[in-house]
Amino acid sequence: MSVKELIKIEKLKKYFPIKSGIISRVSNYVKAVDGIDLSIPEGQTIGLVGESGCGKTTLGKTILKLLEPTSGEIIFENNNITHLSASKMRPFRREMQIVFQDPYGSLNPRMKVESIVSEGLVIHNILSGKDRKDFIRELMRTVGLREDALSRYPHEFSGGQRQRIAIARALALKPKFIVCDEPISALDVSVQAQIINLFIELQEKFKLTYLFISHDLRVVRHISDKVAVMYLGKIVEISPSKELYKNPLHPYTQILISCVPIADPSRKRVKTVLKGDVPSPINPPFGCSFHPRCPIAVEKCKTVEPELRDVGSDHLVSCHLV
Amino acid sequence: MDNVLEIKDLRISFASDGKRVEVVGGISINVPKGKIIGVVGESGCGKTVTALSVMRLIPEPPGKIDSGEIIFDGADLLHYSDRDMRSIRGNRISMIFQEPISSLNPVFTVGNQIEEALSTHLNLSKQERKERVLELLTLVGIPAPQRRMHNYPHEMSGGMSQRVMIAMALACNPEVLIADEPTTALDVTIQAGILELINDLRVKMGMAVLLITHDLGIIAEVADEVYVMYAGKVVEHGYTADIFREPHHPYTVGLLNSVPGLQENKEMLNAIPGVVPSPDNFPDGCRFQDRCPLVIDKCRTDEPLLEQVGNAHTAACWRRAEVKKIEN
Ligand SMILES: Nc1ncnc2c1ncn2[C@@H]1O[C@H](COP(=O)(O)OP(=O)(O)OP(=O)(O)O)[C@@H](O)[C@H]1O
Ligand SMILES: Nc1ncnc2c1ncn2[C@@H]1O[C@H](COP(=O)(O)OP(=O)(O)OP(=O)(O)O)[C@@H](O)[C@H]1O
Ligand code: SF4
Ligand code: SF4
Ligand SMILES: [Mg+2]
Ligand SMILES: [Mg+2]
What we know:
The complex is a heterodimer. Chain A has 9 helices and 12 strands. The longest helix of chain A has 18 residues, at 189-206. Chain A is an alpha/beta fold. In chain A, the strands form 2 sheets. An 8-stranded mixed β-sheet of chain A has the order 6-7-8-3-9-10-12-11, with helices on both faces. Chain A has helices at residues 56-63, 86-95, 113-123, 129-142, 159-171, 189-206, 217-223, 241-246, 251-259; strands at 5-20, 25-41, 45-49, 71-76, 79-80, 96-99, 177-181, 209-213, 226-231, 234-240, 309-310, 316-317. The mean pLDDT of chain A is 88. In chain B, helix 4 (110-121) crosses helix 5 (126-139) and helix 4 runs parallel beside helix 7 (158-170). The longest helix of chain B has 18 residues, at 188-205. The radius of gyration of chain B is 21 Å and the shape is globular. The model of chain B has no long low-confidence stretch (mean pLDDT 88). The structure holds adenosine-5'-triphosphate (2 copies), iron/sulfur cluster (SF4) (2 copies) and magnesium ion (MG) (2 copies). Residues 14, 23, 41, 43-49, 59, 62-63, 98, 214, 279 of chain B line the site of one adenosine-5'-triphosphate.
């Protein structure tokens, strides 16, 4: 089995400086992404889950170089794009897009849908006149909107329709890779299902590769080939989705899965409620950063950081007790 | 019959472009003592507006309660004076609002805000109020409450602000708690804690809860009964187990089918096609007609009303007996 890796990141870090004092000296760092290795095969989806603030959005934006990485490497189709200048980055920009969580805030309210969707084509000088118009019309049909939507403004659409507009905009440049940052969290259940289906359909049609961010494990399971669980800037477990849900190994993953509400009243589950608050990414705990909340922590966890190891079946986990 | 709260044939409209648009079209909901009653439905179907009307917090104008009754403790809240209503709101009936952070006052510490809620309704000494604040913060699971009570809202995470909101809502031991999407914005781990808390409190204090959410998973876990709303109407009602086992309205079936579970692998979900009609453009007959797999001509002209389909189970659909046939 030889699958081509579209994206490969190595030891990627993104630290945000915290400034303090009158001369704004950098006093410390928020370690939002703290040394992540990940590769995404072409045409596949990696799901990324974890608590609010664990660094999911930062990771997505850093891979796309919307944020400058602090260190590490980003390889896109065998090109190292980590240190490319803005102008050298331009041809790659077309290939990598992002769809954001908030379908209300991410579309310019003063632009008609046609301008929103064709903006990228204009910037990159792709197609013109009738060809561009035809292409945009076709795109609207692809994402399940009517052509007459083009002459309207975002506020005239429902949340689900706006998310379709955002997806059409992302697709306009025929990207290979899309970061989907909680693209359905703000939508109704029935609309969520429509949009997930659209993502799956588009992936099959255009061989798209996704990094799909969500805090809803049900959704991620549905769309992902592999799922990565993130905690305080690090990946603590990653495996093919089926394996992860059947056999979660990291205590944090086990807790996350036990907390998902299941739409079946006849199933009474034992939930483990996570104690304590998310610790600060500024001064993460020593040793295993999950130890203050871990129900099975031992002495070693307070001092020695566990490494992400392969435990077989393409399943990697970082915990001393696995 | 021991309902603490009865909403009867409630109609609510809003003024829009010079005409009145009815957004809640005659709904009835009973909340028995000590039970958790779930309300589900698509965005815009009228859940929040219904909840606000119980608190008498509909902005008037543009809003207006056109008709109906809200019976609490034997009397109709809609006939209460503003002053009498103030003694009930936040005291005997309280509400957790949909957006936690924006409902807390940014310039007061959370401790002050809970104290304020207490002093409005209860006659306690300063010392007693302090103790009650600590007790409440501990109850909702805020770590180090002694220190945390001196925090401002922006110094707390979303989950913690939501807990503070719950503490405030519970300050006066309400008989009815209205929780409008209390956990939608939160992580699953925090969500699980808050639902457990709400459930505990109803057991300990006999409080009734009207729980509004669009997450059927949450309903399945904590609600005793469910009301399914669609476009300003209740389309199905029954015990939670019955609704999930044998739904009798095509919309309920569609909702249940579109929830992703933890079992499936990468595959299409069964989405309900189309979109909800907007309140100024509701069709004649059944409001679900354009999205319904079972639609017949009659549905386009005659409005189906809630009819009995089982023990304490009602559905508003002309083809309610055939709903089982919908494939999933
Ligand atoms: N521009 C920034 N400057 C400073 N700190 C930042 C910045 N952006 C993010 N952070 C911090 O980095 C950490 C990770 O944030 P990020 O937005 O990536 O989390 P997330 O996992 O996407 O959370 P959510 O689920 O809430 O969207 C947080 O502690 C956040 O406060
Ligand atoms: N202040 C207002 N002015 C005009 N219309 C309003 C106002 N508040 C609500 N509405 C309308 O009333 C209808 C019901 O809104 P409501 O907020 O109750 O929906 P909801 O079921 O709570 O939705 P969601 O799940 O999105 O919270 C909507 O069509 C909405 O546009
Ligand atoms: S290494 Fe220790 S603290 Fe970390 S998850 Fe494993 S058992 Fe828990
Ligand atoms: S009344 Fe008709 S359109 Fe409405 S839900 Fe029933 S079958 Fe469908
Ligand atoms: Mg994020
Ligand atoms: Mg609402």
